[in-house]
Amino acid sequence: MNYVIIGNSIASVGCIESIRKIDEAGTITVIGDEAHQCYSRPLISYLLEGKTTKEKMVYRSPEFYEQNQVKLVLGKKATRIDSGEKHVILEDGATYPYDKLLVATGSCPFVPPMKNLEAVKNRFSFMKLDDANELEKSIAKDSRVLIIGAGLIGLKCAEGIYNRVKSITVVDLAKRVLPSILDEEGSSLVEKHLHEKGITCILGDSVSEFQDNDALLKSGTVVGFDIVVLAVGVRPNVSLVKDAGGATNRAILIDEQCKTSLEDIYSAGDCTEGVDFVSGERKVLAILPNAYMQGEIAGKNMAGESASFDKGMAMNAIGFFGLHIITAGSYIGEAIVIRSKAGYKRLFIQNGHLVGYILIGDMIDRAGIYTSLVRNKTDLSTIDFELISEQPMLMAFAKKDRVQKLGDAQ
């Protein structure tokens, strides 16, 4: 069997490890457009902050590929899939035949139109290791940094460079920070925390034009800058599958076995759109654990076993300047809100089940209990949920449920 994987990503690692547990003899080729070994992208802000190193960012040991007999083709971009002839064609014209193919191409930055953006010399994205390396070369103690985007990427960039620049201004068209993962009260709490750290947030506004080292906002506000970081959002890389005739929506459509609509072609990670376990809706579930598990499931099916990925849901565990946030599931149904001096909790209940939550600050302890309730679709009438809402603890469960339903959540 000849396996080809496009994308040297977290999903590809899961795929490789699954294949090798089943098929020790088949050939595996990984094609990646970056020149680096697979690394954990969420760590690039910690690299700039000095909390980690490039060596510690690698997702597996340097010997991983050799041990698993993987042929690496790095720094090369796949430009086309011939699904009829079952070939992958690279930008340099090289072709790689496959019996089973995984597309794990991730996502790319979305850059909205802004007048004279191309004239801004020091402009950067913040998604890849190379982006972080280039940004690091340009920042200095007197740098004024303008970050366009108050989402996860933009705010992690702000944290990464915080102690290395003079000022940071964050501009976003949305009226609050982190709108994709937080409710209004949670966003307000985080924005206040950023303000206390000296980060300027200009929300409900956008850049209409760049003039030299000034950004002219639609409101008339002028923001001076030396460096611009574009962190508005991302778009899944769907073109390889779409151009080959595969079904796509916002992302590549996959079933529970991580199959695309094309024969012998699978997909995993941030480029895919699967079914959200909680809501039943099709969504892009762009988080690292889901990417690995999707790659793992794809690898099993590619190697001849039958496996399904049916527990995918939206989750985030992240922190900004010491304020930690954990979110999961869907924000629908009745809400239970609990506040403390240093934190905030919102639990979402629908049809007698916990379907999602937002935890901030000192409310994040033992979040695994809430996650287990969501994943197991636990009937809340069978437990002391009032106690768990206030203080998550296993004693609110019957002994058999503590063992069977929660496992390692202790």
From TrEMBL:
Listed A to Z, the keywords are: FAD, Flavoprotein
Instruction: Please report the stretch or stretches of sequence annotated as the FAD/NAD(P)-binding domain.
Output: 2-295
Q: State the needed cofactors, names only.
A: FAD
Q: Name one GO molecular function term.
A: oxidoreductase activity
Give the matching Gene3D superfamilies.
3.30.390.30, FAD/NAD(P)-binding domain
- PANTHER family (UniProt xref): NITRITE REDUCTASE [NAD(P)H], PYRIDINE NUCLEOTIDE-DISULFIDE OXIDOREDUCTASE DOMAIN-CONTAINING
| Family classification | Belongs to the FAD-dependent oxidoreductase family.
This protein is called: NAD(P)H-nitrite reductase
